User: Fold this.
Amino acid sequence: MIVEHESRIGQLFDSYVRSWGPICWRDQCAKIQAPINCEYGTMLYALGLIETDSVVMRRKLAATRADRSNPIKQFNILWLAEEAEHGRALEAAAEKLGVRSLTFSSRRSIRDLRSIATWPALYLSGFLVPHLDAAYCTLGSVQEYIALTTYRRIGEKLGDPALDGLLRQIAQQEGRHMKFYRGAAQVLLEPRQARRVTAALLARLWRPPGVDLFGLPKWLEIFRPILEDDVYVGRLLRADDLLADLIGDSIARPMKRFLETNQTLLL
Ligand SMILES: [Fe+2]
Ligand SMILES: [Fe+2]
Assistant:
């Protein structure tokens, strides 16, 4: 990475680090009075698992050497700490709605199959293709946007003030994560080749958060109740605008394509 890029991303990290820190969720969670709701409880539990799974993403990142930049490395340490706390908070919130566990069978086989198809390829490309860090930060910004959108909408839909407050706290941190990733992506995507590589990788590998973890059928089953909500879907589609702003119009609209492809499975 060129020194000027590293210094600009360092400034983004300095700004993020001023307000980083775990959320205070235990008291807030104790105040939740929403009735038992298995659909949304399951969704919150699943979101908690996705948060905790971030550690796997970090390992993938190290394997692809996309965090060669010092400020991105430092950011990742704090980011993971915050995501892990989100996982604990969401698990506790799910319990308040009556859900304490979630069974899904094929996690390992799905993950391993996908890994064979994708991550070693990225690992290899780490040697051949520069700009993997640009793809990583672009991916980070879109996944954080989806996370914050999901938390905001679940809070609005359930209407319990304490749960909404808790989800807003989490969403606010996702917003700060998104700000760092998007800012870093803007810097790293300046070379045209970086935009080309990122567009190609995302077109091939992008999936909404959690699809890799649960497998598509289970993911659709878990998130079906909120995917039937037009307001939520409208907000999700803005993820494509975010990508187009970063990469340019050459990027296919992956969220639109994903939702259209799976529309029949949701009916
Ligand atoms: Fe999170
Ligand atoms: Fe996040």
Observations:
- Residues 161-188 form the longest helix (28 residues).
- The domain at 3-260 is CATH 1.10.620 (Ribonucleotide Reductase, subunit A).
- Residues 83, 144, 147, 174, 177 surround fe (ii) ion (ligand 2) (CB under 6 Å).
- The mean pLDDT is 88.
